[in-house]
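A note from the maintainers: we've had questions about how concatenated examples are separated. There is no special marker in the raw files; a new sequence line simply starts the next protein. For clarity in this README we add a label.
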Amino acid sequence: MAPAGDAGRPGRFFGVYVLYCLNPQHLGRIYVGFTVNPVRRVQQHNGGRKKGGAWRTSGLGPWEMVLVVHGFPSAVAALRFEWAWQHPHASRRLAHVSRRLRRESSFVFHLRVLAHMLRAPPWARLPLTVRWLRPDFRRDFCLPPPPHVPLAFGPLPPRGFVSRPRASPCADTAPELEAVCTLCAGAFQDEEGPLCCPHPGCRLRAHVICLAEEFLQKEPGQLLPLEGQCPSCKNSVLWGDLIRLCWMETEEEEESELEEEHWTDMLET
C-alpha cells in the first residue's frame, strides 16, 4: 500500500492518464493507467514490458499520453479512480453510465465516462485538475466538470508537480506565527506544509486536517470539503485552491513506480 504519509500531502503527484496509440495498425486504441511520473511512465509504455510498460501496451506503440487527471490526495484515491475508469460497468458508482455506443470510439467513450466520474461521489469532492497534455486531442465533455475542477493545457511543470510561485500567501506571515497552526496552535512537522489562505493580507496557516474539520462543520457526513469560509479573513475559499496553492519544499520523487497490475485485485469501489 502507499505510505501513510502520502495522504493529504500537497505537492505530491498522483495522476490517472489516457494513452492514445499512434501506430497506424492500432490507431485509436487507448489505455488508462496510474502514474507518479507521467514523463517516465509514457517512456516505459513505449519501451515495452522489459522497460516497465504494461503488457496491454507492449509492442503496439508509439503511445502518446494525451490527458491526465491529477490532484488526488493519495495513491489509493488515484488507483481507485483508475480502476473505476477502466471498469465503469463494474463500479456501482457508474451504474447510470450507458455502455459504449456502436459508432462511439473507445477514446470518446472513456471521455464520456470521465465526465460522469467527475460529477459522481466520491470523486466529485476531490480537488482534481483535468489536464490536456495534447490540446489538439481535446474534446468537449458531455457534462462540464464541476466548478472546482479546472481544465489545464500543455505539459506538466518539471518533476510532475503543480507549479506555484515561490512568493506564497504564507510569505508575509509574521515570524512568530510561522511555526504554529492558526486553529489548534500546534506546531507543523518538518515534512508538513501548512495551508495558507490565498486572499491578500490573510495570515491563516493551518494543518490540513484542522482546516478540513473546520470546513466540514457545515458539511456533516462528508470526508473532504469542497469549500468553506476562511476562519481568519472570512472570505470564501475553494478547498482545491488551498491544496494547489500549498507550498512544500520539492522533495525527491519516488524511484519506483506503483504498478496498477499489483493493485487491481486489492481495491474495490
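[label: protein 2]
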Amino acid sequence: MDQLLRDTFARHENLVPIAPPGLHAAILTGARRRRARRRWAWTGLFTGVIVAVALLAVPVAARPDGTRPQAATSSAPIHLLLVGIDRAGDEPPAQVRADSLVLVHIDPGARAAYAIVVPPDFPLDLPGLGPQRADGAYLVGGYKPAAEAISRLAGVRLDGGAVVDLAAMESITDAAGGLDLCVERRVQSRHLAYDDNGNLGEPGPGRAPVVYEPGCHHFDSREAVDYLRIAAGSGDQRAVRAYLAALAAAASDPARLPALLTAAGQGLELHLGAGALGSLTGLAHALRAVDPQRVTAIRLPTGVPPGDGLYAALQTGRVGEWLAAHPQYEV
C-alpha cells in the first residue's frame, strides 16, 4: 500500500502548482509575523500579570504604625528578569520550558521601562552545558541558571525577578469571582467542551466545544483563562489587555483582595535580593514609579555585533538614547 501511494503521488507530482518566488516569500514573511505577534502577546500577558500581582500587594503592605514603605529614591537603573511558564497538568515548574523570557530595564529618573524580549531560540551559555536555547535554559534548572545566563549576556546585575505560571491564573480569576469580558469575534475552544448534561470539561467524543460568541459576557474562571490562552496564542493583544484590565478592576474590591493575594501567591515565584527590592512591596513600588505610557518592548538584536550596542546601553543606563538611534528594534 505504501508503495502504491508513493507511485500515485509521483505520477501526479507535475500537477502540483509551484508558488512564484514573490508569493513564496510573502507566505514566509506572513508566517514569521504571525509567530512574532503570538510571542509579543505572550510577553505582554506575562509582564502585565506580574505588574498586576505586584501592585495588589501595595494596599495591604502598611507598617504597624499605619504608614507604607516609600519607593526607593535612587536613580540607578533596575534590572529584572521575568519568566513566563504555562504548566500543563501537575508538572513541576522546573520541568517545563519558558514561554517568555523578558529582561526589564527600569529607568527611575525617566519613569520609563524597557521590556527586552529574548527570542526562544536565542543561545544562552550555561555553565557546564554550553549554548542552550533560551526557552530551554529554564527547563535545565529553573530560574537561577536562566538569570545567571541573562546577567552575563547583558553584563548587568539583576536586582530580582519572578516566574509567573499562567496555569495559576485560573485560581486568581476564580478568587475574583470570574470576569466580565467582551468578545469581538467568534472563537471556538480547543480545550473546553460540554457533555450531554451541560457540564464543562475537556473535549471528547460526543462533547460540544465551547464557543465564545461576540458580545459581552460573564466568564467563570475556566472560561476566562481558556479565552486568555486562545487570545495570547493567536496574538490578540487587545483581548489580553482586556483580561488584565478586568482583573485589575476586580482587585479594586477590598473584599476580594485577600483571596486574590492568596491565589496570586500560588502562581508567582519571586526571586528578589536584599535592599529596596527585597520584597513584593519593594517590587511594587519600583513598578509604580514607571509611567504606564512609557513602557516599551524591544526586540533583542541577534546579529553582529552582538547586541548592536544594547548591552552597553543597559550597563550605562542609556537605553532610551540607544532606542532613539535604533528604532528598528522597537516592537
